[in-house]
Write a structure and sequence with these properties.
By secondary structure, the protein is of the alpha+beta class. The chain is built from five helices and 17 strands. The strands form five sheets. The protein has a five-stranded antiparallel beta sheet with strand order 2-5-10-7-8, with helices on one face. It has a five-stranded antiparallel beta sheet with strand order 3-4-11-6-9, with no helix packed on it.
Length: 311
């Protein structure tokens, strides 16, 4: 006959062994999670702290400073040509000569200006007044696309110029340019317009700046698309490291402690359409103006969980 007292004791020992085994498994899992978290922290420290430390100059111990001068939503809308184009109230850009309309043929942001010459050799558009842009660069840039049926005169496609007005700062019809246009047709190209050093400071805090973009055309029947005007304004921030400075997009960082503009742009999701790619077939990455820092953020449209990978 089985001894019930002995069986009960054996059951008690088995229960204790099971509880001890469970405790060991829980401790192992907790230790594993702590190890993974420590590894993640170490990798993050390496990734974000990998600035050049080769310099032994005294300024390498200076703390990194961060000064932000983000463009407003209205400024971004006007400069990126995403608002209302044409005639009527609340228009961001209107035609001075020729005809200006909004187009979905855009370099970025979903919209651009379609400027039709309509008999004019010098079609032009002018912006509504912009408030203070903050610190600007020494060069303005704008993206231009010549329509597929654009007519050139031999190898001459015409030229682009800019006129700046800011009466509050004593700037009247300041001419900037010109820059020669070129092919191929149907392709977006970025053109640079050096800004006179005598006006950059005044432009940075002008409260009534208007911009006129004018084409000296090669035919009175051409169509030109304009998009993404920039004055080199820092894209959300200017970062200063020990011995070097990063400002805006497309610039170069020197010295130690700074972060290159390319890394800042990618990590800040300032140009997600070109810098980030979704893994999921059919998913779409777009750039949004709703953001916490910088000027833009990234929106991913996919079915369910969609990973994205950086450039």
């Amino acid at each position: 006959m089985n001894n019930p007292i002995k069986r009960q004791a054996n059951n008690g020992q088995t229960s204790e062994r099971e509880q001890s085994s469970r405790r060991r498994r829980r401790n192992a899992h907790a230790s594993h999670r702590q190890s993974l978290f420590a590894l993640w922290l170490a990798m993050a420290a390496i990734f974000f702290g990998c600035g050049d430390t080769s310099s032994n100059e005294s300024n390498t111990d200076e703390p990194v400073a961060r000064v932000e001068q983000a463009l407003t939503t209205e400024q971004l809308r006007i400069l990126n040509m995403n608002g209302a184009i044409g005639t009527g109230p609340n228009i961001d850009w209107s035609a001075v000569s020729g005809t200006a309309t909004s187009s979905t043929i855009a370099a970025e942001g979903g919209k651009a200006i379609k400027l039709s010459a309509n008999g004019s050799w010098n079609p032009a558009v002018v912006s509504r007044p912009l408030s203070s842009l903050g610190p600007i660069g020494t060069t303005a840039t704008v993206k231009v696309r010549l329509a597929g049926n654009y007519v050139a005169q031999g190898s001459w496609y015409g030229q682009l110029a800019m006129f700046l007005n800011a009466p509050s700062r004593g700037i009247f019809n300041q001419y900037v340019g010109p820059v020669a246009l070129s092919g191929p047709l149907g392709t977006w190209k970025e053109y640079s317009l050096p800004l006179p050093a005598s006006i950059t400071s005044a432009l940075s805090d002008a409260t009534d700046l208007t911009i006129r973009l004018e084409i000296n055309g090669s035919s009175p029947n051409n169509v030109i698309y304009l998009d993404q005007l920039s004055f080199g304004t820092p894209s959300g921030a200017t970062s200063t490291g020990a011995g070097g400075t990063t400002s805006g997009s497309g610039s170069t960082t020197t010295g130690s402690g700074g972060t290159t503009s390319t890394n800042a742009r990618i990590l800040g999701a300032e140009d997600p359409v070109n810098d980030w790619t979704p893994f999921e077939p059919g998913a779409v990455v777009t750039r949004e103006t709703l953001h916490t820092e910088g000027s833009f953020s990234m929106s991913v449209d996919g079915s369910g969980w969609t990973p994205v990978v950086s450039a």
